[in-house]
Design the sequence.
């Protein structure tokens, strides 16, 4: 996904792109930012988009910088932000000099999405390098387990709605085959965009390889309507989730 792709989404970004901080049903982002933040600490939100995540974490820090390579998205972020402790700056995370983005806490939400493994690794490594010793980093990324689980939930909903289970399973399997671009690489087609999804331990391994210690990966849930157009109100299963990983810089 090149910068043009993101620039083109600047118009109505919030309707067209899933912003996890806007649908964080259990308030995990605020709780994590409160735990890691302090009135002396600085944070950088890497790949900030139109700044929803930047604004969500800002109350817990002395200063927060939102960084993105899309000037169009940064323009919208500046318009939407009134907090006095937030600024925005343009940079390509894959090529940036991490020394110029030193921080106590790094946030990087749904940026490691490219099917290109090397690109994801350079971004993750640069973000980890930017964090001061004793600091922390918080990454969010799509979950492959959640994606696979959602096909089972769809099947369950169809069966409960009275459809024949076997024919429903055939349909759901066909849709899974269309969506799963590469199971071995965890790449899923999301509305025409091949998007990396991680297994839980794969995500922890990536951040550990990049230099974080004690990486803990847990779930950040969002509502069913994000993945199912016709989600029944009484859906009995736990909501879908992204992974949220917190690591320490030793
Ligand atoms: C899915 S959006 C997430 C936005 C925001 N973090 C959020 O959670 O609402 C991904 C963002 O990453 C940015 N991005 C992707 N690759 C980047 C790169 N190499 N350098 C800087 N920003 C990048 C895009 O421009 C986009 O704003």
Sequence:
């Amino acid at each position: 996904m090149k910068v043009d792709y993101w620039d083109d989404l600047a118009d109505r970004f919030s309707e067209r792109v899933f912003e996890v901080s806007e649908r964080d049903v259990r308030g995990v982002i605020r709780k994590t930012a409160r735990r890691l933040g302090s009135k002396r600490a600085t944070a950088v939100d890497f790949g900030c988009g139109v700044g929803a995540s930047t604004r969500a974490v800002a109350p817990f820090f002395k200063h927060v910088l939102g960084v993105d390579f899309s000037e169009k998205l940064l323009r919208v972020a500046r318009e939407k932000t009134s907090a006095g402790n937030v600024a925005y700056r343009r940079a390509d995370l894959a090529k940036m000099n991490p020394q110029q983005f030193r921080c106590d806490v790094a946030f990087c939400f749904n940026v490691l999405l490219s099917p290109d493994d090397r690109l994801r690794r350079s971004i993750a490594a640069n973000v980890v390098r930017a964090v001061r010793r004793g600091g922390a980093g918080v990454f969010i990324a799509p979950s492959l387990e959640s994606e696979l689980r959602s096909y089972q939930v769809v099947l369950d909903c169809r069966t409960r709605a009275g459809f024949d289970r076997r024919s429903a399973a055939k349909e759901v399997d066909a849709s899974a085959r269309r969506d799963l671009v590469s199971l071995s690489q965890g790449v899923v087609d999301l509305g025409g965009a091949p998007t990396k999804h991680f297994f839980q331990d794969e995500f922890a391994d990536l951040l550990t390889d990049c230099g974080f210690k004690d990486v803990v990966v847990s779930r950040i849930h969002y509502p069913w309507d994000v993945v199912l157009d016709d989600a029944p109100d009484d859906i009995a299963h736990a909501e879908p989730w992204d992974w949220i990983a917190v690591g320490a810089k030793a």
Q: What stands out?
A: The radius of gyration is 19 Å.
